[in-house]
Structures are given as structure tokens and as C-alpha cells.
Amino acid sequence: MDHYSMTLGAIKKLLDDIGMNKYSAVVNECIQKWQDEGDSTLFGREFDNNGRFADFRLDNSVISNIEKGMWIGQVLSALIAMAAQLSAFAQRGMQMDLDFIRRNFGAANEIMEITKCQDCGRLEATAMDIDKYVSKIVIAKKIVDGMERGNLNDQIDEIENLTAPEIERERRKAKLRLENSRISYTDTYGKVKSCAGCGSKNITDRKLLRSVKENVFIELSR
After folding, report:
1. What is the distance between the terminal CA atoms of the chain, rounded to a whole angstrom?
2. How many CB atoms neighbour CB 207 within 10 A?
3. Is 165 exposed, middle or buried (0-12, 13-18, 19+ CB in 10 A)?
4. Which of 48, 63, 100, 211 has the maximal Cβ count within 10 Å?
């Protein structure tokens, strides 16, 4: 199975879906270069500082729905990282081992970034904070599952349209861990601007570490 073409095809489809045809055309060139000549180097060149993706931006002018924009941005970054890894394998003449990829692909979801009120000490996670945390495990699994089953585009569609059952399942698990830690969370999809406890606007970022011994988070000191 040509996993490199499959991954590039998923990137192209995602770019087509959000109307970024200029960049989709570049990815299509990468696919043709690989399929016609067995050359995977074009992809890397287009994503370096002088490549045609150098000015690529994904913001609310492209996707107005902030929730969908977050998930699409995360899955697009993950697909690009996967394509870069597969390109490197191809250039070294290495065979892709799906078991190795499954064990090593994706960022570990050990840290959740939230906010803290510096006046009263209230810790609070927003829906976006939770999604950024759970997306690390959901997206990596969906991509590798799609490569293994040959239905990567379907897996990406579920993320793009927020219909993947794994999303809600992982959200529930994260919320339970927050509850066990006595940390508040809100359905607001954005950043906390003022404290819901005391009204202060003295808000700073804070990191939580997922405990491996208990189903809780541990606040990290600066």
C-alpha cells in the first residue's frame, strides 16, 4: 500500500475542502512527482522557508468556526508531519513499519495548558484547552488507523466534521480527570479573559501534568 501517496492525498483533500486550492495544487505536484519518478524530495522543498507553503496561513479568514478550525489545523499539521516522515523513509530506502509508526507518531498528551487567576488562584480549562489536549491522541490514532485500513480520507472526514466518536470519548475522559483534580472547566471555546470566581483579569497560562498513578492532573510550578 502506498502510504505516502495516501497521506499526500489526504492533505490535498483537506486543502480542497477548505478552499485552499493554490496549496492543494502544490501537493498534487508532489503526488505526481512521487508516482511518476519515485521522488519524494519535492514535498520537503515546498515546506521549507523558500517553498510555496512558506506563506501558508490557516486562520479565521479561512475557517470562521473556531472549533472546526482548531481540529482542522491540528489534523493538517499531523498529516504534514506524517508525510515528512514517510518522505524521509523513502529517501533512505527504508520500509515503513506501521507498528513502529503507531508507537512513535504524534505528541504525547501528558500536558494540558489552561489558565490561572493570579488573584484568587482559580484554575480553569476551556473547551478549547480540552480539545487541544485530546486532539493529540485522537488524531494520531485516526491517521494510523486510516493508513492501516486504507480509508484515511474517511478518518480525516470524521475529524474535519467533528463526528469522530473518539473526540467525545476523549473529552469525557479529560473532563473526569479535571473533576477528580477539582479543576473547573467551561464550554467556552476560546481563552479565559476574566476569572469566573473573583472577576479579576489578572489571568496567566498554566500547565497541568497528567498523573500516571491516579486519574488526576498535577499543576506544574513555574
Report:
1. 47
2. 16
3. exposed
4. 63
Distance between CA 112 and CA 210 in Å, rounded? Answer: 8
pTM (2 decimals)? 0.91
| 84 and 90 Cβ atoms separated by less than 8 Å | no
- Do residues 159 and 139 touch, judged by C-beta distance below 8 A? yes
β-bridge partners, 184: 124
Helix, coil or strand: residue 133: helix
Grid coordinates of 56: 501558508
Give tens-digit pLDDT for 149-181.
999 999 999 999 999 999 999 999 999 999 999
Supply 221's cell numbers.
510550578
C-alpha cell at 66: 473556531
- CB proximity list for 196: less than 8 A, separation 6 or greater: 122, 124, 184, 186
Q: What sign does the dihedral 190-193-199-202 (CA atoms) show? A: positive
Say how many C-beta atoms besides its own lie within 10 A of residue 168's C-beta: 13
